[in-house]
Amino acid sequence: MSLTDQPPRKPQAPFAQGLVASDSSYLDEAAAQAALLTTFDTCDSCRRCVGRCAAFPALFDLIDESKNFSTADVPTAQWSDVLDRCHLCNQCVSSCGYAAPHPLALNVPQAMLRAKAVRFERGRVPLRDKLFTAITQPPHGLLRWPGVRHAINLVSRSSYLRQIASSLTGLDPAARLPRLTQPRWQPAKSSPVRTTDQEAPTHQRLPMRLVIDVSADGVDLPAELFEDLFKILDHNDIEHTTADFQLGALRAAAVLGDSAALLRAVQSQLPILAQHAKQGVGILVLSPSNAAMLKVTLPDLLAGNDDAQRVKSAVYGPMEYLHARQVAGLLLNDFRQTLGQVNLHVACGSQVFADGQAAASLLSVVPDTAVNTAARCSGHGCGWGYKRDFAPLASHMGKPLFNILAQGTPDNIATECQHAINHISQGLEGLPQGRWQDKKPEILHPLRLLCMAYGL
Q1: Which residues of 218-229 are buried (b: 16+ CB within 10 A; e: fewer)?
Q2: β-strands 282-285, 340-345: how paired?
Q3: Residue 212: beta bridge partners?
Q4: 416 vs 445: CA distance, rounded Å
């Protein structure tokens, strides 16, 4: 069915007032289903995103296997598999020909998010999925108890305990899990960055002061990564502090479709984030997926909310911010070590706001360093690839990326997506040995490479 054969579609107008999850019509099942079908109809007519992530192949297979090759003929219950594969990375929006400013204003992640919320509200999310989310993106209060991280690490290394965890949560017993580390600093409980009562100008220049979100410290992001960032900021005399904005809980609620938890997280954290933005403080978020939530998902969801729009302009990925300072002549270039050939994976979340190209540009400034970028999905999906039902598909989706990262004789392989490092490492080990010359490089974060270049 071509786009011209279909009835005229109405643009997907955002909810203008406040959080959409608090609007009763947002959780209207018939309206949400209609919006989802409108979105999928347009996707079917285009299909440019077939290899973008695991959700689109499943979508198109359902349509192709239906009676009349139409979304209308796909049973409603079958869309659940497509929803399960969408982790709201938003990269499809950046390449969508029907997204705003197109008259259709298509926004696939927002349609998915609304359908997820309705499904959760109707009690159609299995307890196993809730447990899986609690394990892979847990609230940090529990993990701050002494010994809890150590106990989880022991479970992840035991094949017997992994089998038990798999039966309870759907966690794949063979997936390589990250080691939970204990942060060696305490995040601030308030706002320690120097503030004034005067708001920053509307067109704020590059912020000279930073507040760093450490809500993912030691869980999906290791403590060592934050320490690398602190070294770089201190080396360049950049004023910074830390705060726990609980972004992991916010994102987990969105992916699961728990609109009530999402509402609570937004009401709790958005005013705090907005206050930093008003005072001209940059908000540095190391997790690309969490940054994408603040720069894309929430601003789209809260189209009429000034705080959400203000925060959007204040959020930076670490390499995005450091590259902006380098372009402005405000970053030291006293590099002591070359990095050679770097094969860099541009994370899905980073593709949304060009952070990946910033990382490549910044690392290229290091003498005798050549950076090759690979802007493809790793298949991991910030925990989706840990699921027993999807782990084989996650590995299959990641194969093109694994092959690109192994090309040539890289001295370093890097990814901005710390979530996916173990998944990529496992995938690279599955490549034929002939792809490597002397050794398989360790997979590092660009911040670690920058520390190496500085000699820190």
Answers
A1: bbbbbbbbbbbb
A2: unpaired
A3: 242, 284
A4: 6
How far CA 177 is from CA of 137, 171, 347, 407, in Å, comes to 13, 10, 18, 25
Q: Record the pTM.
A: 0.83
Backbone angles phi, psi at 346, to 5 degrees: -90, 115
Of 140, 336, 345, 329, nearest to 245 by C-alpha is 140
With 0-12 / 13-18 / 19 or more C-beta atoms within 10 angstroms meaning exposed / middle / buried, residue 340 is middle
SS (H, E, C) 92-146: HHHCCCCCCCCCCCCCHHHHHHHHHHHHHHCCCCCHHHHHHHHHHCCCHHHHCCC
Tokens of 99: 């997204």
- Residues belonging to the chain: 456
Give the pair of three-digit tokens for residue 138.
Answer: 């847990």
Amino acid (1-letter code) at residue 251: R
Mean pLDDT by 10 residues, the chain (456 residues): 38 40 74 89 87 86 88 87 86 81 86 90 83 63 63 73 75 71 52 41 69 73 86 93 85 86 87 93 89 87 86 91 91 92 82 71 91 81 72 80 83 84 80 62 88 93
Contact between 93 and 12 under an 8 Å Cβ cutoff? The reply is: no
Express each pLDDT in 173-183 by its tens digit.
777 776 666 65
Report the amino acid identity of residue 400: P
Side by side, which strands form the sheet with 209-213?
Answer: 239-243, 209-213, 282-285, 315-316
> Sign of dihedral through CA atoms 272, 275, 277, 279?
negative
pLDDT in tens, 258-278: 888 888 888 889 999 999 999
- Return d(Cα 360, Cα 353) in angstroms, integer: 14
Residue 213, CA atoms < 13 Å, CB-side half-sphere: 30
Helix, strand, coil percentages for the chain (3-state, nearest 5): 50, 10, 40
Long-range pairs of 400-403 with CB within 8 A, sequence gap ≥ 24: 400/51, 400/376, 401/345, 401/374, 401/376, 401/377, 401/427, 402/427, 402/428, 402/430, 402/431, 403/431, 403/435
Whether 346 and 416 have beta carbons less than 8 Å apart is answered as yes
Q: CA 391, CA 174: separation in Å to the nearest integer? A: 9
Q: Exposed (0-12), middle (13-18) or buried (19+): which is 289, by Cβ within 10 Å?
A: buried
